[in-house]
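DM from R.C. (forwarded with permission)

"hey, sorry to bug you on a friday — could you get me a structure for this? deadline for the figure draft is monday and I only need the backbone to look sensible"
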Amino acid sequence: MLRHAAMVVILLLAAGGAPAYAQDKPVKLTLAAGGSAGSWYIGGAVMSEIVRESFPNINVTPVPGGGVANMRTIQKGDADIAFAFWSTAVEATRGEAPFKTPHGKIRAVISLFPLYLQIVVRQDGPIKAFGDLVGKKISAGRRGFVGEITFLRMLELHGTSVKDIEAKGGKVNFLDYTDSTDMMQDRLLDALSSTSAIPHSSYQQLAALFPLRMLPIAEDKIQAFEKKYQGWVRAEFPAGVYKGVDAPVPTVASWSGIVARDDLPADIVYKVTKALYEKRQRLADAYPAYKAMLPKENTVLGMSVPMHPGAQQFYKEIGLVK
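My reply, with the result:
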């Protein structure tokens, strides 16, 4: 009798009488995420849970990363999927700075939310415009990360440089969020710059201690930045996110998303895409920036690199792409 029951189960599985994952082999995926406590770090952990709940045979393991590093990690095959700035992804595929060679293995999966250039200072201080940063102590973010690159590019568009800032007695530091927040709190820094989601947890921490001012970017500089760097657009940083920032602030932003290696099987990418799309409310509940995903059309917004066939198949089925 037991042998007969076992045979029935085997036949049912073979005939598709059980969920698809019961027939699938275990799959292990590495997800290159971001630094600790940021939107990518938190989102990576939630994505791992979402995919495993939807398809128990797929195990996603998040690992630390960053906007530039993740593109290199995907190209080398050291990760299967990764967080990305769409602006950085297109630079990687073309082999443009900061990349030395084309990274042709990067494929789009899903869009997440915009990341804003956010330069903050104390509201009670003398710095009111970007040009006032000359001669001041600044954290531009960690070396090699998109935040640092964006800040240096903005300096160039303003006709200045790190040397100019330091020639006037200032200092440009390249620090992580934790160190830069601590130094700003202790008045060892005058300004912090990052390219990050809303809200930035480090800025929230500072705003709980003293009001902040966010430096606006002039319209002509925004237009020049958009023209020179694909994937960047004019954006209004909304009022009320941080104490002291009481009116919208003009700046630039780049949407972020998830990319996959081009040789990752289409059926796996299809399942990952389906899981993240259908349970994107879970991401929004975990971190406010992911609320940008809730309008379904935003899940394909801003993609600057070719879509992975697995993702494309899913979006075709739900009518988001043709």
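R.C.: lifesaver. The chain has two domains: 23-114+256-317, 116-254.
me: no worries. The chain has twelve helices and ten strands.
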